[in-house]
Amino acid sequence: MSKKPEFKDQNIIVGVDDGFAMTKLVVMQGGSIIKQLMIPSRARSGIHGTTSIGAAAQGEIEARYETEGNTFTVQDLSDAESARFDEYPFSPMNRAIITHALRVAGLGGKEVTVATGLPLSMYYRGSEADEAVLTRNPQVDFLYYSNDMIGAGGLLYCLHKGLDVPGQIGLAGFNGVELLDGLPIRLATMDACRLQIGRVAAEIIAGKHSSGTIGGEVIELFPTLQKGDTIRG
Hints:
There is one protein chain. The chain is of the alpha+beta class and 233 residues long. The protein contains four helices and eleven strands. The strands form four sheets. It has a four-stranded mixed β-sheet with strand order 3-2-1-7, with helices on one face. The longest helix has 13 residues, at 92-104.
Protein backbone atom coordinates (compact mmCIF):
# COMPACT_ATOMS: atom_id res chain seq x y z
CA MET A 1 0.00 0.00 0.00
CA SER A 2 1.58 3.28 -1.10
CA LYS A 3 1.44 6.37 1.04
CA LYS A 4 -0.05 9.49 -0.52
CA PRO A 5 2.29 12.50 -0.66
CA GLU A 6 1.86 15.20 1.96
CA PHE A 7 1.87 18.70 0.49
CA LYS A 8 2.53 21.98 2.20
CA ASP A 9 0.04 24.68 1.22
CA GLN A 10 2.68 27.17 0.05
CA ASN A 11 3.18 27.70 -3.68
CA ILE A 12 1.55 24.56 -5.05
CA ILE A 13 1.11 24.95 -8.81
CA VAL A 14 -0.86 22.38 -10.79
CA GLY A 15 -0.78 22.16 -14.57
CA VAL A 16 -3.92 20.52 -15.95
CA ASP A 17 -4.42 18.94 -19.37
CA ASP A 18 -8.16 18.30 -19.31
CA GLY A 19 -8.53 16.23 -22.45
CA PHE A 20 -11.67 14.48 -23.63
CA ALA A 21 -10.23 11.05 -22.86
CA MET A 22 -7.79 11.62 -20.01
CA THR A 23 -7.18 14.32 -17.41
CA LYS A 24 -3.49 14.79 -16.61
CA LEU A 25 -1.97 16.73 -13.71
CA VAL A 26 1.57 17.92 -13.10
CA VAL A 27 2.09 19.17 -9.55
CA MET A 28 4.95 21.58 -8.89
CA GLN A 29 6.28 23.08 -5.69
CA GLY A 30 9.42 25.13 -5.23
CA GLY A 31 10.14 24.96 -8.96
CA SER A 32 10.28 21.15 -9.03
CA ILE A 33 7.81 18.57 -10.30
CA ILE A 34 6.77 16.50 -7.29
CA LYS A 35 3.93 14.44 -8.72
CA GLN A 36 2.32 13.51 -12.04
CA LEU A 37 -1.09 11.90 -12.33
CA MET A 38 -3.53 10.79 -15.01
CA ILE A 39 -7.16 9.69 -14.63
CA PRO A 40 -9.86 8.93 -17.23
CA SER A 41 -12.11 11.88 -18.06
CA ARG A 42 -15.17 9.83 -17.23
CA ALA A 43 -18.19 10.99 -15.25
CA ARG A 44 -21.94 10.75 -15.26
CA SER A 45 -24.70 13.00 -13.99
CA GLY A 46 -26.30 11.87 -10.77
CA ILE A 47 -25.24 9.37 -8.14
CA HIS A 48 -23.90 6.12 -9.50
CA GLY A 49 -21.34 3.62 -8.91
CA THR A 50 -19.11 1.53 -6.89
CA THR A 51 -18.01 3.56 -3.86
CA SER A 52 -18.47 1.23 -0.94
CA ILE A 53 -19.85 1.91 2.54
CA GLY A 54 -16.99 2.90 4.77
CA ALA A 55 -14.81 3.91 1.81
CA ALA A 56 -13.52 6.97 3.68
CA ALA A 57 -12.30 4.78 6.52
CA GLN A 58 -10.39 2.66 4.01
CA GLY A 59 -8.69 5.68 2.45
CA GLU A 60 -10.77 5.61 -0.74
CA ILE A 61 -11.92 8.88 -2.27
CA GLU A 62 -15.61 9.66 -2.53
CA ALA A 63 -16.31 10.24 -6.22
CA ARG A 64 -19.48 12.36 -6.03
CA TYR A 65 -19.42 16.10 -6.60
CA GLU A 66 -22.00 18.88 -6.77
CA THR A 67 -21.41 22.05 -8.77
CA GLU A 68 -23.89 24.65 -10.04
CA GLY A 69 -26.73 22.44 -8.82
CA ASN A 70 -25.49 19.44 -10.81
CA THR A 71 -24.33 16.20 -9.19
CA PHE A 72 -21.68 14.05 -10.88
CA THR A 73 -20.11 10.72 -10.14
CA VAL A 74 -16.50 10.66 -11.34
CA GLN A 75 -15.40 7.07 -11.92
CA ASP A 76 -14.31 4.87 -14.81
CA LEU A 77 -17.93 4.00 -15.54
CA SER A 78 -18.80 1.96 -18.61
CA ASP A 79 -21.76 4.27 -19.33
CA ALA A 80 -19.95 7.56 -18.65
CA GLU A 81 -21.15 10.63 -20.53
CA SER A 82 -19.01 11.81 -23.43
CA ALA A 83 -16.73 14.76 -22.76
CA ARG A 84 -16.44 15.48 -26.48
CA PHE A 85 -18.47 18.67 -26.69
CA ASP A 86 -17.42 22.27 -27.35
CA GLU A 87 -18.34 23.62 -23.93
CA TYR A 88 -16.54 20.89 -21.99
CA PRO A 89 -13.65 23.12 -20.74
CA PHE A 90 -16.23 25.38 -19.04
CA SER A 91 -18.70 22.71 -17.94
CA PRO A 92 -19.70 21.47 -14.47
CA MET A 93 -18.55 17.99 -15.58
CA ASN A 94 -15.08 19.37 -16.28
CA ARG A 95 -14.87 20.96 -12.82
CA ALA A 96 -16.01 17.73 -11.16
CA ILE A 97 -13.38 15.65 -12.99
CA ILE A 98 -10.55 18.11 -12.27
CA THR A 99 -11.57 18.36 -8.61
CA HIS A 100 -11.52 14.58 -8.37
CA ALA A 101 -8.07 14.43 -9.98
CA LEU A 102 -6.77 17.00 -7.48
CA ARG A 103 -8.09 14.95 -4.60
CA VAL A 104 -6.60 11.74 -5.98
CA ALA A 105 -3.28 13.61 -6.16
CA GLY A 106 -3.51 14.33 -2.43
CA LEU A 107 -4.46 17.98 -2.80
CA GLY A 108 -7.90 17.86 -1.20
CA GLY A 109 -8.38 20.87 1.07
CA LYS A 110 -5.14 22.49 -0.13
CA GLU A 111 -4.83 25.94 -1.65
CA VAL A 112 -3.43 25.50 -5.14
CA THR A 113 -2.87 27.54 -8.29
CA VAL A 114 -4.32 25.71 -11.29
CA ALA A 115 -3.17 26.41 -14.84
CA THR A 116 -5.08 24.91 -17.75
CA GLY A 117 -5.58 25.55 -21.44
CA LEU A 118 -8.20 25.66 -24.15
CA PRO A 119 -8.81 23.36 -27.14
CA LEU A 120 -6.99 24.32 -30.32
CA SER A 121 -10.36 24.95 -31.99
CA MET A 122 -10.90 27.97 -29.72
CA TYR A 123 -7.78 29.82 -30.90
CA TYR A 124 -7.74 32.43 -33.67
CA ARG A 125 -11.35 33.49 -33.10
CA GLY A 126 -10.66 37.11 -32.30
CA SER A 127 -11.78 37.94 -28.76
CA GLU A 128 -14.24 35.03 -28.54
CA ALA A 129 -11.96 32.82 -26.43
CA ASP A 130 -11.07 35.68 -24.06
CA GLU A 131 -14.73 36.54 -23.60
CA ALA A 132 -15.64 32.90 -22.99
CA VAL A 133 -12.94 32.41 -20.36
CA LEU A 134 -13.59 35.63 -18.46
CA THR A 135 -17.37 35.27 -18.58
CA ARG A 136 -17.51 31.66 -17.41
CA ASN A 137 -14.53 31.82 -15.06
CA PRO A 138 -14.63 35.31 -13.52
CA GLN A 139 -12.11 34.33 -10.83
CA VAL A 140 -9.33 33.67 -13.35
CA ASP A 141 -6.39 35.87 -12.33
CA PHE A 142 -3.93 35.23 -15.17
CA LEU A 143 -4.07 34.43 -18.89
CA TYR A 144 -1.03 33.04 -20.70
CA TYR A 145 -1.08 33.07 -24.51
CA SER A 146 0.83 30.71 -26.79
CA ASN A 147 2.17 33.64 -28.81
CA ASP A 148 2.35 37.43 -28.65
CA MET A 149 -0.13 38.02 -31.48
CA ILE A 150 -2.91 36.28 -29.58
CA GLY A 151 -1.74 37.91 -26.35
CA ALA A 152 -1.91 41.37 -27.90
CA GLY A 153 -5.51 40.71 -28.91
CA GLY A 154 -6.30 39.53 -25.39
CA LEU A 155 -4.72 42.64 -23.87
CA LEU A 156 -6.72 44.96 -26.13
CA TYR A 157 -9.89 43.04 -25.32
CA CYS A 158 -9.30 43.37 -21.56
CA LEU A 159 -8.60 47.10 -21.86
CA HIS A 160 -11.69 47.57 -24.02
CA LYS A 161 -13.78 45.88 -21.31
CA GLY A 162 -12.35 48.20 -18.68
CA LEU A 163 -10.41 45.52 -16.81
CA ASP A 164 -7.51 46.63 -14.63
CA VAL A 165 -4.37 45.08 -16.11
CA PRO A 166 -2.47 43.82 -14.15
CA GLY A 167 -4.34 44.74 -10.96
CA GLN A 168 -7.41 42.65 -11.77
CA ILE A 169 -5.89 40.17 -14.21
CA GLY A 170 -2.36 39.43 -15.39
CA LEU A 171 -1.41 38.61 -18.99
CA ALA A 172 1.62 37.20 -20.77
CA GLY A 173 2.51 36.15 -24.30
CA PHE A 174 5.39 34.25 -25.87
CA ASN A 175 8.02 35.03 -28.54
CA GLY A 176 9.04 38.65 -27.81
CA VAL A 177 7.92 40.20 -31.12
CA GLU A 178 8.49 43.90 -31.81
CA LEU A 179 4.76 44.42 -32.32
CA LEU A 180 4.41 44.71 -28.54
CA ASP A 181 6.15 48.09 -28.61
CA GLY A 182 3.04 49.63 -30.14
CA LEU A 183 0.58 48.48 -27.47
CA PRO A 184 -0.79 50.90 -24.86
CA ILE A 185 0.61 48.61 -22.13
CA ARG A 186 3.71 46.51 -22.61
CA LEU A 187 2.70 42.84 -22.64
CA ALA A 188 4.91 40.50 -20.62
CA THR A 189 6.51 37.87 -22.85
CA MET A 190 9.37 35.44 -23.25
CA ASP A 191 12.01 36.11 -25.87
CA ALA A 192 12.52 32.57 -27.14
CA CYS A 193 15.54 33.49 -29.32
CA ARG A 194 13.73 32.45 -32.47
CA LEU A 195 15.48 35.03 -34.63
CA GLN A 196 18.90 33.94 -33.35
CA ILE A 197 17.99 30.28 -33.81
CA GLY A 198 17.01 30.91 -37.41
CA ARG A 199 20.17 32.83 -38.18
CA VAL A 200 22.52 30.29 -36.60
CA ALA A 201 20.71 27.41 -38.31
CA ALA A 202 20.98 29.15 -41.68
CA GLU A 203 24.69 29.83 -41.15
CA ILE A 204 25.37 26.20 -40.26
CA ILE A 205 23.40 24.91 -43.24
CA ALA A 206 25.19 27.32 -45.57
CA GLY A 207 28.57 26.44 -44.09
CA LYS A 208 29.17 30.07 -43.08
CA HIS A 209 29.05 29.85 -39.31
CA SER A 210 31.79 31.86 -37.60
CA SER A 211 33.27 28.71 -36.08
CA GLY A 212 33.60 27.11 -39.49
CA THR A 213 31.61 24.11 -38.26
CA ILE A 214 29.17 22.52 -40.68
CA GLY A 215 27.36 20.38 -38.13
CA GLY A 216 27.64 18.48 -34.87
CA GLU A 217 28.07 21.64 -32.78
CA VAL A 218 26.08 22.47 -29.66
CA ILE A 219 25.14 26.15 -29.53
CA GLU A 220 23.40 27.45 -26.42
CA LEU A 221 20.90 30.30 -26.54
CA PHE A 222 19.12 31.55 -23.44
CA PRO A 223 15.47 32.74 -23.46
CA THR A 224 14.83 35.99 -21.64
CA LEU A 225 11.74 36.97 -19.65
CA GLN A 226 10.51 40.43 -20.56
CA LYS A 227 8.25 41.37 -17.64
CA GLY A 228 6.54 44.31 -19.33
CA ASP A 229 3.63 45.89 -17.46
CA THR A 230 1.10 43.05 -17.29
CA ILE A 231 2.47 40.75 -14.56
CA ARG A 232 0.93 41.21 -11.14
CA GLY A 233 3.40 42.23 -8.46
